[in-house]
Every structure is written in C-alpha cells, then in structure tokens.
Amino acid sequence: MRMDSPLGKLRRWWQIRPVAWRTCLAVGVGFIVLTAQLSSAATPSVVDEIRNESVRRSTDPTGRPLPLAGHWNMGNLAGGFSPSYQLELISAGHHILPWFQFPDYRNASVPDYTYYEAAIKQFAAWNLPISLVGTQWESILSDPGERFFSLPADQNPNVVDLSGQVLPKLDPLGPIGLWQTAGTMWTKSLLMQQLQTWYPSPPLILFLSNNEQPKLLWKEAETSRNFVRSYGIGTSDTFRRKVFGDAWIERYRALILGMRSTLASSTWQTRSVFIGYDSFGPSYFGRSGVWEDTLFTPGRISPWPYAWGGTSSSYYTNNWDPSTDYRVWSPQIESMNWVFMQHQVVRDVPEFWFEMSVWDGNGPASFQPTNKRTFYEQRGQQYGPERYEGLVQYGMWLLTPRIVREFRYWTEKVSDCGAYFDAILRGVDRVYADPILTKFWRTGTLVPNHTRLHPYQVDIPAEYTTEDRWFLLNTNLDPPGLWNLYTELPVMALARVIGQSNQREWLVYAHAPVGPRNQVQVEIPDYKKIVLDVPVAGAFYYVRESDGIVNRIAGGPSSLQPPTLLIK
Fold first, then answer.
1. How far out from the chain centre does Cα 453 lie?
2. How many domains does the chain have?
3. Rounded Cα distance, 191 and 549, in Å
4. 157 by DSSP, 3-state: which?
5. Residues 28-37: tens digit of each pLDDT
6. Which of 172, 211, 213, 307 could disulfide-pair with 277, CB 3.0 to 4.6 Å?
C-alpha cells in the first residue's frame, strides 16, 4: 500500500493521535467500522490472549493469569468508554475485557439494542469474555417503588426498628427468600434474554455490582427488632460481627442464585462470576481503630469474599480524604494489607476473582476544588498520566489482579480522561510484550521487607501479627525515624523473586511520584543494594544473582498501535 493513499494517510493520522482522540469514527456520510477479519497478525493473537487469560484458572500450575484492563464508565453518553470504543482498543492490540451496562429491567419498555447489538455480536465472533456492570441489585428490596418495601413488618427484608417502623436499609436477619426472588427479577428481562441470543456461548461473563446499598451495621444491631427478638441485648461485638457476617453471606448467595437461575442457558449459568465492588477485607486494616467497624471475626478477615465470587477492590486516592500517592497514607501502602488477605481467601475459595479498581481522585470540573489534581497543584506538584501510570503499576505488581478496572464518573468522556486510561493500557500491555515481565507475573513471589513493620499497627489481632504486611523496599531516600500517615516517600519500590539461593532472579519495580530520582540505592532483602534511576512513570529492573547483572527493562511498546480498519 502506498503511504500517500487515503488509507495510508489515515493510518499515519491514527498513529500520532492518543487514544483519547480516537473515540468515534463516524464522520459525515462515511462510517468506519471494525471487523474481526483482521489482516494484522498481532490483533488475532491479542484476541486469543484476552480469551485465554480470562479463563485461565487462578490456580493454574503454570502460573498466574496475565492482567486485563477494564472500566466502570459504560459509555452511556456520547464520547464515553463505549462498546464501540472498546472495539477500537482491541483492534489496536490492547488487552481489555469488554464491558457493557447491565440491562435494567425497570427500563425495559423500549430496550436500547443499538448500544449492545453490533459490539456484542463482534465480541461473539471473536469469542471474547464480557462484563456486565450494574447497580447494587439488592437495592430493589429497599426501593419504595417495588413491592418489597411495602410488605408487612414480619415479612419485610428491611430494618424494622423496635417501634415497628420499616427503615430503607437492609436487615441481615430479614426473610432470605426475598433475596432470591429479587435476583430472578434482574436476569429474566427481555434485553438480558436478547443478549444471550446474540451471544449464546461466551467463555466467561462477569456480573459486576456497584455493591453500595445501605445495610444495617453490626454496631446498630440492637436497633433491629429481628436481632433483639432472636438474640436479646448485651451481646458481644464478636458475636454480632459473626451473626451479621454469616447472615449476609447467606443472603447474597441467595441473590446470586436467583440471578443465575433465570439465565437462559446452562452455558451462561456455569460461566458467570458475580463480583462485588470492595467485597474484600479492609485496606485500612490497622490504620486506626475504625477498621474494627468491619465484620472481621477470628479466622475470617471479612465475610464478603464468601458471599461473592470476586471483588473489584478500590485502589484510590480519594478526593474526600487526605490520601495521596506519595505519603504513608496512600493506596500503595494500604493495599499491602490485601496480600495476606488474598492468601487467606484463596485458601478457602481457590478461584476467587480478585481485580482492582483504580482512581486518581479526579472528576468532572464541577467537582472542583476537591479534585486530587488540584490538591497536588496547590503544593507545587504536577499530576499527569505518567504519574498515574507509576501508581497503577505499583498496585498491579503488588497484587497481580485479574483486571485493572478504572473508575470515572458516568458523565466523563474519553476526550476528558482517556489519556489516563491509556496509562493503564500501557501498564497491562507491557506485561504481555516483555517476556521477563510475563515470567515474573506468572511465577514471581512478592518479596517481604522484614526490617520494618507496616506503619498501620492499631489493634492488630494476634492471629495476624506474624503475617507479612510490608513490601516496600528500603532506599537511601527513606525519611529517618518513625513514620506517620503524612510521612513523604520519594521513591516506592517492590520486588518479585524467582529461584533459590545463589540462583535467584528479581524483578524490581520503582516509581517516584513527585519527580524523577536518579542514582537511588534500593536494598533487595537478603541480597544487596542496587543503584537505580527512578522515573515518575515507574521503571522495571531485572537483577540476577548468578552474575550480579542489573538491567533496566524497556517494558514493551510505549506507543499505541493503529487498528485494522474496514471502510464501508
């Protein structure tokens, strides 16, 4: 093909624009569509990789599944992270697990087939997994517009207080059968049935719940007539946590059973995984006594992994608290707590699906002045996609999630924040692109640092005092003395190791959130100090014990590749 041909010009235009610009190719009378009949050898392999890694078992003896990217923004509005945008990403060679808005049976009078049909048929042609991202499905039990809320007090799934008044929040001791009934209502809608007709045999379907429905807290137990009638007053905190945790597990399993049972085919029933946002233990474990408000009990850090088939746990620098990416109060430090929790859950639920939701604390302009980017700018710092990339990759290599799922508000467009999702795509794609990164993701073991305790040490139960919770490597830039929540950390580094003594190999990852740092001394536990240059976006170094080499890894392509297009 001549490079001065119209398609050649289009390809060159495509190569120099970021993904954030490539949101819609419908222009005038022409409409460019993507196709599964790809001439590029790279894209079919990406389709295969997405499929293979999505269905690979977490306990696969050959190693962990490689990560995929995803999103919470379903592209309901023009210019959002829509199914057509996702088709572009896959055709451009990016490793995503496609997502759609979960069909809401309450809006089913005129189903919006146009949002779903073309994309889901293409995903079916590619035989790719899909995600259906929804609300908290149990919310209809508390919805005044639904029949459940008006049921008599003794039959109501909501809290009934001691005076007999029904409150709009769920009671863990309410009738369990109604939870299964509610589940069936979600998956028997006409649109849900149509999706299954268009795509009868996906290799995997993720049902993702926002999971933020108001519920009775265990500390409020004695305000519930159900609880007082069953157990009286004056019960211990441990008892109430256990009762509530067990009851929620039963009810959420009933909800999921109802949803699964009304799926149209056994294929959809058996290949579906139901995931709850933050359905895991608390990342803030030990930060303050507030963590004890959770539902931990001896032997079980949280009931939620036993209620759901997976979690999308929040790795956020929130815009409503002082967390940042460069202090002790940060997602990098907090999420170290999830490592021992992952071990506990996998012991009991080997195929539990662990993914991480990521957010930099930035939203639409209307959210000023609370946006995190403003917070940094007020301190003379810059925040852009590279800094976000450094943060995200730290969480990825700490936790090895199945999906890195970005959160953005539903009104945001790719043109607003697509460059930040590009950073996630780079972090995910380079795991596939570089064989050393692939090897360490599959089989590398996270290296604990036993020279320091995790700084979150408030009221740690005895059973967890010996768990490894600290994985930040020592550097010569670490601040001296005792650290508090606001201690600044110029460089954050971690390592994974393969092999035994004298033949060990390490992958060291380090990023410098506030600004690049050169000639940084990083100590690999039980080995030696190495000297690294650490950029804002993060860097990987391969270290080998047998000959002492320390090599920086390029980490795969840094630019986005053009898709294969069919012009109609």
1. 27
2. 2
3. 57
4. coil
5. 323 233 333 3
6. 211
Q: Which of 234, 268, 302 is the last residue of a domain?
A: 268
Domain coverage including residue 236: 135-268
User: 167 in helix, strand or coil?
Assistant: strand
Contact 418, 27 (CB under 8 A): no
2 lies in some domain: no
What stretches of 110-158 show up as alpha helix (H) in DSSP? 113-126
Task: Establish if 139 belongs to a structural domain.
Answer: yes
Find the helix packing angle between 113-126 and 83-91, rounded to 10°: 30
Residue 107 has pLDDT above 90, yes or no: no
Vertex 519: Cα angle to 444 and 422 (nearest 5): 55
Q: How distant, in Å, are the alpha carbons of 326, 407, 485, 535 from that of 380?
A: 14, 26, 20, 18
Domain's final residue, options 268, 288, 323: 268
Give one DSSP letter per residue of 479-543, joined into a string: PPS---TT-B-S-EEEEEEES-TTS-EEEEEEE-SSS-EEEEEEEPTTS-EEEEEE-TT-EEEEE
Q: What is the pTM of this model?
A: 0.90
The per-residue pLDDT for range 480-512, each reduced to its tens digit, is 999 999 999 999 999 999 999 899 999 999 999
What one-character DSSP code corresponds to residue 447? P
User: What's at 215, amino acid-wise?
Assistant: K
| Cα angle, residue 275 at apex, residues 342 and 403 outer, rounded to 5° | 65
Amino acid at 324: T
Say what percent of the chain tops pLDDT 70.
89
pLDDT in tens, 265-313: 999 999 999 999 999 999 999 999 999 999 999 999 999 999 999 999 9
Distance from the Cα of residue 462 to its chain's centroid: 30
